[in-house]
Amino acid sequence: MKIVFAASEVAPFSKTGGLGDVAGALPDALARRGHEVLVVTPLYGQIDRKKHGIWPTSTRVFDMPVHERVLESGVRVVFLEHGHFFDRPGIYDEGGKEYDDNAHRFAFFSRRILPTADALGFGPVDILHLNDWQTGVAALELSRQRGLRPGFTKSVFTIHNLGYQGVFDKKVIDELGLGWDAFTPWGMEQYDRVNYLKAGVAFADWITTVSPTYAQEIQTPEHGFGLDGFIRSRSNRLVGILNGVDYGQWNPATDRNLPSRYGPDDLAGKAVCRRALCEELGIEDRPGSMLLGVVTRLAWQKGIDMIVDAIPALMERNVNLAILGSGEQHYVDRLEGAKRYHGKRIGLYVGYDNGLAHRIEAGADAFLMPSLYEPCGLNQMYSLKYGTVPIVRTTGGLVDTVVDATVPGGFGTGFRFQDPNAGALIDAVDRALRAFEHPARWREIQQAGMAQDFSWDAAAARCEAIYERA
């Protein structure tokens, strides 16, 4: 098939979260399965063109320059240049404030996805795979072009996080010429405003989410963010496909970010990684203590309130914390306050450091992920591969990837808890501590996790099946 894959961020060129990881890995996996894939994304000012080998082409789309990088897999990544819209320090926001013209920026992007493929001679396009609200207008545009394009292009729209919908004042209908015919309860209208994500759900041929459990959750009032009823109306075209992990980047046996490498049959290197991590973050490496790792956005969704509220009780136990994160300042302030009070019991790095993220995954004994909701999650899957036992809340993709190991002797890969509060989190940590005190049992849980396979090939095969149905 010829697949156009469009996303507002694509790792390693641009990334703010999991969407970038998916857009960087899934097209490669599809190409390895024999498909021709063209990735379309904006050329942001922060992208280092020389470093990434991105070069201008002779192609222009509506007089807009197009740049390209061909990956080893054969995937063509094309970048759309527009100085006013994309040459900015941030992707969606700056200094914590969203750009006030995001409706215009991403409608502009959406409307140039298929014309770019056409201009490059990539066609006829079989599948247009769109991702999140930034591409929702493209689903609407394609639905209006049916019968006017060569071939018969079908669209798939993936919801990575329903909490971000791209909702704007309805005045953009006239400003952008979107057409009032689409501004209906069964189109892109929601509470008298324009909703770009809803446009994607309404006008795409198929809708996917990033885990099977999340596909069910977004049809409920608790996790539907006001769209649950509308999504239920399209449930016959909704499928949950679990994201994958790039084991070329996340594998303790080959990871160059680590001071020592290791695998499931020989975990000696993991102890080396723990000692080095404690030294790097200034953590007191107390005998018999459990080191809990946290790599996260400091945001409400990620359950940071639970972590901060639980710290006093955790410090009463033989537990230390290694935390890497950036985000909302009030969470930074609370964590820095806890660090000052508890000293060497807590290692804290505010910001993002990819190498340190790998070293926390390798050096921690367990990984804490108490998300209030989690469409898929990647860190719990990284943790499993690194023999770092995940302690997670029972939601979204965390349900689909972590099997509770509370029952002694039973199969399990981590520890789960349900209630979104510090007490439930501490209870889960206590259950993990009881297993940790028995090295043979702990190793059993580690090895069960390390044996799991969440590679991108499995996700690509499931996407391929949806493309065929479309």
Structure summarized in a few sentences:
The chain is α/β, with parallel strands linked by helices and about 475 residues long. Helix content is about 40%, strand content about 20%.
Which SSEs are present, and which pair or pack?
Layout: E1 2-6, H1 18-32, E2 36-42, H2 49-52, E3 55-61, E4 64-70, E5 76-80, H3 83-86, E6 93-94, E7 97-98, H4 102-110, H5 113-119, E8 127-131, H6 136-145, E9 154-159, E10 167-169, H7 172-176, E11 189-190, E12 193-195, H8 196-203, E13 206-209, H9 212-217, H10 228-232, E14 238-240, H11 268-281, E15 290-298, H12 304-315, E16 319-327, H13 329-342, E17 346-350, H14 354-363, E18 366-369, H15 379-385, E19 389-393, H16 396-401, E20 415-417, H17 422-436, H18 439-450, H19 456-469
Parallel strand pairs: 1-2, 1-8, 2-5, 8-9, 9-13, 13-14, 15-16, 15-18, 16-17, 18-19, 19-20
Antiparallel strand pairs: 3-4, 4-5, 6-7, 10-12, 11-12
Helix pairs in contact: 1-19, 4-6, 6-8, 11-14, 12-13, 12-17
